[in-house]
Fold this protein.
Amino acid sequence: MAGALGLALAGPRIYDGVTVDDALMGNGRRDANARDIRAALTLYRRADALLMALVGVLALAVIALG
C-alpha cells in the first residue's frame, strides 16, 4: 500500500532510545499526512469490494456446478 500511495513507510527509526533498522516499504516520501490516510482507506475499501465480488462470483460458480 505504501508504494501505491507514493509513500515510504517503516525504515530505520528509534523507539525509546533503541534504533530499529527495518527496511523501507515503498519508494516515495516519508511524511504521511491525513490526506494519505484517507487515500489508504479508499484504496482499502476498493480492494475489499473487489475481493468480496470475487468471492461472491466463486461461490455462485460452486453452487451452479454443485
Summary: The mean pLDDT is 93. The chain has two helices and four strands. The first helix runs from residue 2 to 5. The beta strands are 9-10, 13-15, 18-20, 24-25.
